[in-house]
Amino acid sequence: MQEEQRRETPFAFDRRKPYVTWIIIGVTVAVFLVEMLLNATEDMRILVIMGAKYNPLITLGQYWRLLTPALLHGSIVHIAMNMISLYMWGPTIELLYGKWKMLAIYVMSAVMGTAFSYAISPALSVGASGAIFGLFGTILSFGRDNKAFFKKVFGSRFLILIGVNVAYGLMNTGIDIWAHLGGLVGGYLAAEILGTYKRPRTSWRMIASTAGYILVIMLILIRGKILNTGF
Question: Which of 85, 111, 127, 216 gives a 20 to 30 Å CA spacing to 58?
Answer without folding.
Answer: 85
